Each structure stands twice: as structure tokens, then as C-alpha cells.
Amino acid sequence: MKDQLHRTLHLHKTPKRIVSLVPSQTELLIDLGLKDSIVGVTKFCVHPKQLRKEKAVVGGTKQVHLDKIRELQPDIILCNKEENTKDMIPELEQIAPVHISDIYSIEDSLELIDMYGNLFDAPEKAKNIIKDIKAKLTDFKVFVSDRKKLKVVYFIWKNPYMVAANQTFINEMLSMNHFENSYQDESRYPEITLSEFKEKQPDLILLSSEPYPFKAIDIDEFNTVCPDAKIKIVDGEAFSWYGSRLLKAFDYFKALQKSL
Fold it and tell me: If you write DSSP's letter for every residue of the chain in order, what string do you get?
């Protein structure tokens, strides 16, 4: 089979021992009923909360303990092009086949769910998740169709300040909400200064709860720079976690829209 980078994986049977190095993909495995097959996770795999107490924690998403992963004797290791590093892959491939996801859109997310359903022999559960996500997406598109478009800046980091631009899953979620990304003409996660940001004159400033945990105290600083903009701390998981998290994301987006 091939992963989302079109790399060929040579698997002779259904993988039964899984190491997942991506939090949102770990959550997807749980919702596919594959909890018993997971042997290793990252310290950021926080859903469900008790999972890190039950499974081996092998490091973070950028740095892992190869010796710990090797000891787990996994049949497969799950990675993501953005969340993990390119340098990790050759080392991980010496331990087990590595499946890499590459997510920019809802369609990419649905493709990954289908891939996992086939890869881990859970096709019906995958189909049901995909069906439910599509239904929620259709409903949300109707809900948001008459909403006024707002110019938005979405902050993911502080010191230095970084925002979500084009070619990101977050940008797809912003567009889905009828938000016009003020950094649409840039790619990935550019570093910016507050003086540059002020010139964008956004209607709405979104401060993500992750990866940088923006707090209420940060709102004051942005208020000083852009006093006319509305500022919201938002659930970073809703905007950046793909997979089965989409089952909850659209309900969150409805509540967010109603609060504006």
C-alpha cells in the first residue's frame, strides 16, 4: 500500500502493534476501535486522557526515543509530514514500516481515515466516521452560508509571533468558517512582528490554545495594537486536529460563530 506521500509500504499482514507519533492520529485510532493495538504514543497524545498512563510514551513529535520504540517491536509507525521531522524517518524505518500522512484539506483527512480503515482492518468504522463528518460538514456549510466574511489573523506562537497562512489545515478551517485569512498570500507559518500585523487591520484576531497556550493576559497586548479588532482565544484542536476530531469541530465552530 501507499501512504499520503505516495511512498510504498511493504506489509505482509494487518499491523497489530502500532506506534503513533501524531496526537490527532492517535485519537483517530481510538475512534476506529484500535486502542488495544496501540503500543506507543507521544507525550502530546492527550485524548483520551488516560492513554499515556496505559501505553508507552516514546517522546514528543519532533524528538523521540528510538530505543524505546525499538523495544516495543511495532509492526508500523504512524507519522505526519508537518508534525514530525524528515530526519526521523530513515531512523524509524530501520525499526518498522513508516506511514506518513500529509493533510491540507478535509478531503485529505477523509482519505487518511479511509486509509487507516483499510490498513488496520476497520473499514466499516472508517466509513461511518467519514459519513458522519460529511453530514456535519454539509450542515455547517448551510449554517455559515449567510455569515458576514471577516478578515482574520490566526496566531499559533509567541516569541516570535507566528501565524497560520496558506498551505495549512488551519487555513482550510478558517475558509470553512467564512474567515478571510489576512496572510492568505503567504505560506505555512510565517514569523511576523506586531507592527507588520497592525497594517493588516483584521476584524478578528484568533489566539490558538495550542501549540502556544495563549491566555487571557495576551489579549491586552493585542488590544493595544489593534483596538478595533475582536479578539478570541480559540480551541487549537478544533482548527488543527484532523481525523475524527472533525466530528466535534463543526459543533465548536457553530458556537464560535454565534459568539462573534
Answer: -B-TT--B---SS---SEEE--HHHHHHHHHTT-GGGEEEE-TT--SSTTHHHHSEE-B-SS-B-HHHHHHH--SEEEEETTTS-TTHHHHHHTTS-EEEE--SSHHHHHHHHHHHHHHTT-HHHHHHHHHHHHHHHHHHHHHHTTSPPEEEEEEEETTTEEE--BSSHHHHHHHHTTEEETTTTSBS--EE-HHHHHTT--SEEEEESSSS---HHHHHHHHHH-TTSEEEEE-HHHHH--GGGHHHHHHHHHHHHHH-
